[in-house]
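Researcher: Here's my situation. A collaborator sent me these components and asked whether they could plausibly form a single complex. I don't have experimental data yet, so a predicted model of the whole assembly would be a useful starting point for our discussion.
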Amino acid sequence: MGTGVGTAAASSRRPILALVPRIRSRAVTALGILLLGLVAFWLVENAVHDIGQFGLVTLNGITNGSIYALVAIGYTLVYGILELINFAHGDVFSWGAMIAYSVAISWLGADHHSGIELFGILAVALLCAGAFCATLNIAVERVAYRRLRNAPRLAPLITAIGMSFVLSNAIAVVYGFNYVSSEPLLSRRALFTIEGQSYGWDKLIVLLITVPTLMSLMVVVKRTRWGKAMRATAQNRDAARLMGIDVDRAIAFAFGIGGALAGIGGFVYLVYFTQGRFDLGFQIGLFAFTAAVLGGIGNILGAALGGYLIGFIENYNSGLTWHAPGPSWTESLIFILLILILVFRPHGLLGEELSTRS
Amino acid sequence: MRSRLRLPSVPPATRTRLERALLAVCFCTLALYPWLYSNYLSTTLTQWLPDTSTAFVILAFTVMGLGLNFVVGYAGLLDLGYVAFFAAGAYVAGWLASEQFANAGSVVFGGTVLPKTPGIHLSPWLVLLAAALFSALLGVVIGVPTLRLRGDYLAIVTLGFGEIIPQFVRNGDNLGGFNLTNGAFGMNGIDGLGFGNTVHHAIHTLPSNFLNELDSRWYYWTALALVVVTIVTSLLLRDSRLGRAWIAIREDEDAAAAMGVPLMRTKTLSYAIGAFFGGAAGAMITLQAGATSPDAFSLQVSIFVLCMVILGGIGNVWGVTLGGILLAYVNYKGLFAAGNTFNSTFGTNVDISQYAYLIYGVAIVLFMLVRPEGLIPSARRRAELVEEPEEENVGAEASPA
């Protein structure tokens, strides 16, 4: 803190200091390339070792990644507009899974039907989960975040943490603290097999739901007036307001879309894993947030890409047999990745350079 | 960012006579609490008041709240992984005062065990210090790469560390074949607080139970002493050059940097000092419990400690102390008591403590919406929070929604 002395010393050191960032950025790039090379080598080695396992794990990665992608987009949309990490988003996802359970299994008894009836029931559950979560997310924004929009930045973040506790424990109040679970809804009969490892309907349906959802999302965001209003608000809220955009509605729209995607994600999770619990959204929410950061927060395509990457990392780590750290380290690996990205490449894979607003 | 900030009027740090008297009364009540409880209160208010060991835990958590206040309250860095330092302190206590490293032979240095007991057994007072220092070091190690990040990014990274460290502890029973942490079982048989045989042999006149394993009153008084030390450190640092630098960073990082405040060093110091007290509190809780396990280090603990700071008044030592005692009381005694009273009154059988985090969640949201400055806000912080929104609202003035 000795400012008087410090400036003199700093100016005499400046020529050397000026070199430091350049050297460091080169070293970081070199290290990054080395690391990626090692990972690539490890993957190839694993694929050679046991191609069937590798294929299965890859497909599992796509399946899990779809869920992360659906949830990650909700984080990225909200962060893009409000610069708020919506901690409660993971719990909106949990609500989606639980509502899907209530509708599909408790109410319509999906586990006793098959064929076209089953698909009808699942469609109803999907719509219910999506609609419920969209409403829930909009309500959360209206109740908790809107009043804090101009407050110091930590205030809405802390509120979001509080909302997360409220939402997840509200599930515990309604459904209890234990897992709700059902028999597998879709037959795990193999559609095709790779080297003895089968791929069934329960995995395919995840992709059958996720891919069209993501595509229609892109259309909504890029092509419709609502999407345009949302993007304008994200870019510059004041300018958007001056252009006659109802900013509150655009923000509510972003929350609604994010919530609907989380609800669909919850439905997909339930159909695939056939179980759910009140704290389900905590870890998945964190992974999905990591995915959003990985892809470049604020970037929808990036969030989807990040989601699939996280899915791969999780499954390769826990499923591969040759020198994998194993499932007990998955969380640590993903958080270490998150920290590395935030420290060395805070704008993520696809994102633009972030502003340094505090 | 806050160019038109209305200069907050910060009252000089003098206290009125009433405030001094109130403080003295509070301190005396707390200091005499074990005696008051066993002689008077335990018969009448037994259901509502914590016994001495519970009161110890309450005070230990208050130390954690005060420690987090250095980071969140003073420097304005949101730390969601404070539990990492709790874990660090707990495991240092486990390493230095149990039979964890029994195959390293017997190292008894002032520990509260018989001589020749296998494992490392340092004097618990040294263990407290070592745990605090180790935590502070961990704080520096975590802080140096991450404190460059701002605001909510920092929050997420600290949250990540708060998740990584318990997982490391859980998997730490086989680190290249070496059992560092005993894995998911945690560590047991950790020594208690006391002065050990060395001192005991030197002073023969005192009763033997006094110097070996101390009873719960001594834990309580140790915790109270630590609370006092933390409060005094907080007050001294707040009014120091470092404290002013923290507050400058909290209010406007860029302006502080422009004024010559070395950001990284100042932030890292706040992180390390906060970690120091977190580690001390963690070690103390572990010494009392005699055991520790990775299940104790969940995100919920971080949030719980953060709630103390928010509830009490971010940045105000007295507020955080009050918030800490209040919230820890609610968590460790009040909720049970309220639940029991509720059940016996209405003849129901609801386990209210199950829903503790629902209640905390509602409390956080309500507090942020209604009284973001906390129970006893710091004057400067209040001025910051009630400040009229400006730059974000330029458009609102032009076209009211």
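Model: Some features of this prediction you could bring to your collaborator: The longest helix of chain B spans residues 317-346. Chain B has one domain: 17-41+50-386.
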